[in-house]
Records
---
Amino acid sequence: MNTKIIKIDENNIEKDKVKEITKAFSDGKLVVIPTETVYGLGANGFDEEACKNIFKAKGRPMDNPLILHIADVEQIDELVSEIPQVAKDCMEMFWPGPLTMILKKSDKMSDVVTAGLDTVAIRMPSHKIAREILKDCKLPIAAPSANLSGRPSPTAFKHVDEDLNNKVDIIVDGGTSNVGIESTVIDMTSNPPMILRPGYVTYEDLKVLIPDLAVDNTTIDAKDKTVPKSPGQKYKHYAPKADAYCFVGNLEGVVKEVNKRVKENEDKKIAILATAETKDGYEGADLVIDLGSRENMQEIAHNLFEALRKCDTEDIEIIYAEGFDFRGIGAGIMNRLLKACGGKIVFGL
Ligand code: AMP
Ligand code: MG
């Protein structure tokens, strides 16, 4: 398939380009669009064949449901059978933005989108380009992250180009994704509501509206082997090619332990995912990536997937990653890191 690249400047969004994308969605085509979390591989959520093609292009297992993206709250009525008051409150407070809500689906929703579940995932992105496109096409756009299944999610056009060129009809080049990790997923059909995937909208943010908020522990606890409630969480997502380990504890202890392990594995190509505070303390690794300052966890989230992809392009064999607090956006970062490490976490340093 010949993939067309359409470059859009978010400060000058040309109408004709938006119209071309709307037409492509209406014609059942696959279009990759930028969002504030990561790039999404989109298709018309009412077009079952087009949605099947999303799974084919990504190599995504069919039991992993898709998120529908909308521009206006009014669009929801067609997609769901009921909206609890707490979900309405969250829409008011967090939309447009990186929060996905699981709601009871309407009869109109295809089993392809929901992977046969009786619920559907919905989010309203805040990215300017995504919003213009969604407003113009007035369709719910089903869009998982625009990476090949198993690779880190794409936060820049070049990542999408690496994974999906020739597999989709159009890729919109809209710069880098600000947030850098996928949306927070919250199940509004359970009582109390439960976070199924931590993200940029944090437990602490949501607790303001939902005092008894629950969390699916499997998403942040490497030792919990129960099956996660969100199908996507059971896959070893975000996995770099290297063997990866995460170190949690006192920072001096972490640096010391990592330096020791680097020495023990001198024959291997090693990368360290470090932070501004620690990067100068490491010795002997082939690559030390500075994810940013621990004072600015958003910057760390923003840089994480790019760093994991860099380890792949540099043919790194072992990754030693520093861990973070499971608080705030740190919970979202650790969820991705634990997946990248396949649960290999070293505590107590
Ligand atoms: P992605 O867009 O690739 O980040 O994947 C979407 C995430 O939302 C996956 O982890 C899915 O398992 C999850 N998801 C989508 N629909 C549902 C649903 N109805 N119930 C639970 N999780 C869902
Ligand atoms: Mg994904």
---
Amino acid sequence: MKIRVGHLYPDYLNIYADRGNIAVLTRRAAWRGHELDVRGLSIGDAMDPAAHDLLYVGGGQDREQALIAHDIAAKRDGIIAAAEAGTAILAVCGGYQLLGRSYRDFHGADLPGVGLFPLETVAGERRMIGDVLLECELDAGVRRPLAGFENHAGRTHLDDGAEPLGRVVAGFGNDGESGYEGCRVGRAVGTYLHGPLLPRNPWFADWVLAQALAHATGRDPEPLEPLADELEAEAHRISARRAETRGGRY
Ligand code: GLN
């Protein structure tokens, strides 16, 4: 099966080598006989809501976010229509913030957002930095851990009733107070976790792939054939242990 991926702003949003997530998806898809067809989508490119099975956007500093914010806001209708039609979406940090309604940076400048995720982000004085461990329940009754690294000044406030990606076990998460991290709307997930996120969380990489495949086939998401994942499990253990021993303070 060919899985069509739109990588938004690969030339602007790639802090902490977030494009490594695409490399993980490509290999894990290939090991199951699927091919990822990855296209960059940048400033001025048209956003066809039917053209992708997965949209991916990485993280970046305020400066890079400011450079692309008006363009991503102009792609708003296309991105929301894609999500409503079941396209999988993964957005990390700066990209996560811009898929919310708005981002107010440290200088008080307001950047427009896409409004896919029901949240707003306002930068605070101190950055929230360090290893993070979450507990997620993306499939009802199945709780799984996610480990990663966060570095953000933005405090993200979810609307009442919004679904977070997970509960913070260690680290700051969305705002350092709510105990929640990230946001999920259907097959769209936003998170502060870099690292990159997917090499050390193989179950989550496969969850994202399964959502993208579901869009490609028009069927419900199905579990993918298991892989050995020994190195990935070790990377996860080390990352989770670092988060557990860091404490959750500034
Ligand atoms: N500029 C944003 C913040 O600091 C996002 C940073 C990032 O993507 N790491 O809140």
